[in-house]
Write a sequence for this structure.
């Protein structure tokens, strides 16, 4: 069940994005970051132990991609007001959740 949470940024992005070109430009890196995060959580990378710096880097990259994607969609003018509001709200909430998760993971791994 927890692994489904890793797909949350990608699913939200695919629901919000309207232009096909921007959808693909953001979805491909988000998918790769999600796969790398899952592999790191499973211990398949980084010498069989997750590193907190990796989680922070992944989550910062996801946040940057989501903000860039929403800015691009907003600038293109293809979003109706409700979709724009929901998109920015989801981006901000996901950013807070991801960054909080990565820093708590970092504190847990450093403290362990």
């Amino acid at each position: 069940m927890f692994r489904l949470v890793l797909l949350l940024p990608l699913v939200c992005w695919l629901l919000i994005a309207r232009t096909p070109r921007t959808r693909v430009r953001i979805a491909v890196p988000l998918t790769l970051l999600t796969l790398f995060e899952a592999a790191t959580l499973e211990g398949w990378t980084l010498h069989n132990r997750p590193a907190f710096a990796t989680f922070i880097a992944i989550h910062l990259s996801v946040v940057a991609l989501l903000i860039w994607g929403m800015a691009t969609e907003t600038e293109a003018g293809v979003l109706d007001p409700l979709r724009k509001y929901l998109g920015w709200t989801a981006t901000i909430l996901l950013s807070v959740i991801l960054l909080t998760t990565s820093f708590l993971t970092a504190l847990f791994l450093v403290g362990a």
In short: The two ends are 24 Å apart (CA to CA). The chain has five helices and no strands.
